[in-house]
Specification:
mainly alpha
Length: 302
């Protein structure tokens, strides 16, 4: 049962860690760096630390290496932070960013699928699924990374939040409370980041944040696809949702601030909510939450 302790530890704590690190990084460096750099560099570190803090507070320490493959996002978060920090501080070129993103996503997908890849009698089908999942993740994440280096960080955080919050609900409704809670923690980091960027101002950019946020989101969706009941179509819709924000650049300036800033975020939210509505209406009437407390390991044994 979800308690107040879970709420404070799993949702308030990651928000405080994420927002606090962003504000502390800005305050500590704004006199030595330019306004844009001082407001941007701490983004990847803040998201990774906030996710790790919330995950540990809500779900506990799983041990290393984790017995449950869906716990790998916790151990992926902190190593991703310094890689994202490199981009945020030194503005890496697109080919380098793509290679880092590919290495991170491929590593995450292989680690999560390893129990199936290494099992006796493992079919070639799982190997192909790993390859396809990696390529599809890159198709969705590379445009998001390009957007992050162009858009104000607050707008990027709003887009990520609009995609991550429905994704958490989809993960929960797909049969895994653990993945649903982890997705909720990730969404909270984006809410806190948006609030911190609003306070800091428009100079910040979200360089390096996609490497952390995107890899973690892809890991959670991939875990649910393998070990829960997430449909491939729903996962694709959740990956497609943030791309709707590109429509902002097709809207003329004369359309006004709402049409160019708020409407694309609402469109992202609308697309991401389609799987939520579908899953909600198709839940069994007798016990829609049956099995939500089971870990992925228990589901594999079944």
């Amino acid at each position: 049962m979800f308690t107040w302790a879970d709420f404070w530890g799993g949702f308030v704590l990651p928000g405080m860690v994420t927002g606090g690190l962003l504000l502390a990084g800005w305050r500590g460096t704004r006199r030595r760096w330019s306004a844009r750099e001082s407001r941007s560099w701490a983004g990847p570190l803040a998201v990774a630390a906030g996710f790790a803090a919330g995950y540990l507070a809500l779900l506990g320490w799983p041990g290393f290496p984790p017995l449950d493959a869906v716990d790998w996002p916790l151990f992926l978060a902190l190593p991703l932070a310094p890689l994202g920090l490199l981009d945020a501080r030194w503005r890496l070129d697109l080919p380098v960013r793509v290679l880092l993103l590919l290495a991170a996503v491929a590593t995450a997908i292989v680690l999560i699928a390893w129990p199936l890849l290494s099992a006796e009698g493992a079919s070639e089908g799982i190997g192909w699924r790993v390859v396809v999942a990696t390529l599809v993740s890159m198709i969705f994440l590379v445009p998001l990374d390009v957007m992050a280096v162009r858009a104000w960080a607050g707008r990027y955080a709003a887009i990520a939040l609009a995609a991550a919050a429905p994704a958490a609900a989809v993960l929960m409704l797909s049969g895994s409370a653990k993945l649903g809670f982890a997705g909720g923690v990730l969404a909270v980091t984006q809410l806190a980041a948006w609030m911190a960027y609003v306070i800091q101002g428009r100079a910040a950019f979200a360089r390096g944040c996609v490497l952390v946020f995107g890899t973690l989101m892809a890991s959670l969706l991939w875990s649910a696809s393998l070990y829960a009941e997430l449909w491939t179509f729903d996962a694709l819709l959740l990956g497609l949702a943030p791309q709707m924000a590109w429509l902002r650049y097709a809207i003329p300036l004369r359309a006004g601030w709402f049409a160019r800033s708020i409407a694309p975020v609402l469109l992202v939210l609308a697309v991401a909510c389609v799987p939520v509505v579908r899953l909600w209406w198709t839940q069994p009437a007798d016990d829609p939450y049956e099995g939500y407390g089971e870990s992925a390991a228990v589901q594999i044994e079944r």
